[in-house]
Amino acid sequence: MSQNTVILITGANRGIGLELVKLYASEPQYTVIAGVRDVTKARELEEWNEQAGKESGRGGKIHLVKIDAGDLEGNKKAAAEIEQLYGKVDVLWANAGAACGSIPVLSATNADYENLFRTNTLGPIVLFQAFYALLQKSDNPVKKFLITSSIVGSTGSQHMVPFALSPYGASKAAVNHVAVKLAQEHGEKDGIAVVCLHPGSVMSDLGRQGWVDMGLDPDGPLPMPVATPEECANSLKGVVDGVTVEKDGGKFIAYDRSVVPW
Ligand SMILES: NC(=O)c1ccc[n+]([C@@H]2O[C@H](COP(=O)([O-])OP(=O)(O)OC[C@H]3O[C@@H](n4cnc5c(N)ncnc54)[C@H](OP(=O)(O)O)[C@@H]3O)[C@@H](O)[C@H]2O)c1
User: What InterPro entries does the record point to (predicted)?
Assistant: First the structure.
């Protein structure tokens, strides 16, 4: 990556996104753009930025931008703002995501599916559409489009996911498909490494609510290891920093570097 790498991460005000933003902002070569859907809900991020800025003596280096998943006009406005300020994006990370609890297909409503498809599927699609021109302006040999997906959207792993999570899983499976198409359409042609990521089980608000919805106490014994958002961000950063188009483009990679089946 070049001396000045511009990285944009969505869903940056809490959970895994917040920890990713902090990690990248701690490294001098990165300019970090934090995509949040409601800037008034980014207090923790702003405080961290202010504090880090004081400690470095150079001021906060995180730029907040409003990005609502699936809103094409809003995403284009955000891209225009970033173009004015930085002229390019090197790494675009669609991390924002939502879940809706444990609902069997038989009782799931259209709204359950539609809401999650808008955030988890259209969110990354629209983000790519709005920022494609800025990724093309990157002078980095490897440009990256990363999507925080989930093993719940891995059709080939459903034997390991015996939970009623179809609206969430379907929305992530759909975005996985789109990632494969984007890798075909923009991997070799534009040098963009398109990669889906499985962060593992993480005790964010979303992860915590997931255990509650399944009738388990998130603070009690759980059937699998659960990472903190900070641990997860560290693992994911380790994975994505070494990503290349040839080696990883069009793949679904887990926090522990294993390849997840589609
Ligand atoms: N936690 C896990 O165990 C786990 C496992 C597999 C995959 N994931 C995936 O990891 C990603 C990050 O989730 P997390 O665990 O860090 O959850 P989280 O702490 O609940 O954070 C979710 C983030 O997504 C944002 N978001 C939700 N809906 C949005 C929308 N319509 N437009 C824009 N932003 C929106 C939230 O913003 P607001 O604060 O404004 O709501 C928040 O910043 C998600 O894609 C999730 O599906 C998580």
Answer: Fungal_SecMetab_SDRs, NAD(P)-bd_dom_sf, SDR_fam
Pocket of ligand 1 (CB under 6 A): 11, 13-17, 37-38, 41, 68-69, 95-98, 119, 148, 150, 199, 201-202, 204-207, 229
Which residues on adjacent β-strands are paired with residue 63? 33
Place of tokens 């998943």: 69
Ligand 1, residue 67: give the atom nearest the CA: 33
What pTM was estimated for this model as a whole?
Answer: 0.98
Residue-wise pLDDT tens digits, 137-176? 999 989 999 999 999 999 999 999 888 999 999 999 999 9
At residue 208's C-alpha, the angle toward residues 10 and 148, to 5°, is: 30
The answer to whether the beta carbons of residues 255 and 232 sit under 8 Å apart is yes
For residue 2, the model assigns a pLDDT of 54
Strands (E), 26-165: 30-36, 62-66, 91-94, 143-148
Report the 10 Å Cβ neighbour count for 207.
Answer: 21
251 bridge partner residues: 195
Q: Residue 64 in contact with residue 39, Cβ under 8 Å?
A: yes
Supply the pLDDT for residue 71: 98
